[in-house]
Design brief:
This protein is of the alpha+beta class. The protein is built from six helices and seven strands.
Amino acid sequence: MPGVDEPAFPRPAATVILMRRSGRHRRSGLEVLMLRRGAEARFMPGVWVFPGGAVDREDHDAARSIELDIELDELAHRVCGARELGEEAAIALEAAALRPWSRWVTPAVVPIRFDTRFYVAVLPEAQRASHDGTETTSADWLRPAGAIDDMLAGRIIQQRRGQPPHVMITVPLLMGTDGRKMSQLAGTVQELANG
């Protein structure tokens, strides 16, 4: 156990930024799924987040049985992201559908820390997101600009120590699909944005 002055070691975790096109017209833009964590949650209670959680041994075991040309630890993170998306938001998605987006490590001043890999994915047709009623108590589709506006206006509770990565990660989504980061997503987001 870390000493008083030593920061906690960050646990490996995965988070999914699930997106969909809003409305029937391309100009309507993209929306991202955000879930509100339960008030009793040990980590970030009451905060609006993307679905995700800690990578466990079962995620590594499941990754070993998947034949993809992806390094095992990376694949275990994707398996975790897909699993958490199913548990927290009732969305079934294969690990192969997740595309790397970003990686954040919880600051050392926070007692519970995660080394989180963020992935993007598109909502599969005929699926609807819903909260699980335990870990998450609300689910909502938000436009990235709207999510930032809501956070600044206090309608979305933010993490108490520092800027939550969930809000900061939406900023590149505001730049549209022309940016360098978007092109790194192997066309997934571009395809969604163009209809």
